Amino acid sequence: VASWETSKARSQATVNSYAAIASRHQKLVSDGSIRIDNDCGVVTRDIAFTSPSAAAAIVLGTTANGRARWVNDEGQNYGAWEETNNS
């Protein structure tokens, strides 16, 4: 199996972006705005984000597709919910 030397493959802007996401995630975990439960981030208060993916990234602490990662109690992801409710 091949492996990647990620420090060589990423631009500095990408490294900075990941660091900013991880930093904001940690701040929100520390102040109780995000609770970690069974390896899932649970938002405990209203937090404004610019997109579903930005919200997912901050809650998870890494980049994420919010339309795929946000899932409701019925197991439906946000993208599927959005399609159903905007038809």
Topology diagram in text:
Blueprint: H1 6-9, H2 12-30, E1 34-37, E2 40-43, H3 52-60, H4 66-69, H5 78-85
Antiparallel strand pairs: 1-2
Helix pairs in contact: 2-3
Domain DUF4357: 26-76
Protein name: DUF4357 domain-containing protein
InterPro entries: DUF4357
List key phrases describing it.
single chain; 87 residues; mainly alpha; two-stranded antiparallel sheet; DUF4357; DUF4357 domain-containing protein
If you had to describe this structure to a student in words, what would you say it looks like?
The chain is mainly alpha-helical and 87 residues long. It has one domain. It has 5 helices and 2 strands; from the N terminus they run ααββααα. It has a two-stranded antiparallel sheet. A hairpin with a 2-residue loop joins strand 1 and strand 2. The N and C termini lie far apart (44 Å). The relative contact order is 0.11.
Low-confidence stretches: none
Question: Which sheet architecture does the biggest sheet show?
Answer: 2 strands, antiparallel
The count of helical stretches stands at 5
Topology, number of strands: 2
Strand content: 5-15%
Order of helical and strand elements = HHEEHHH
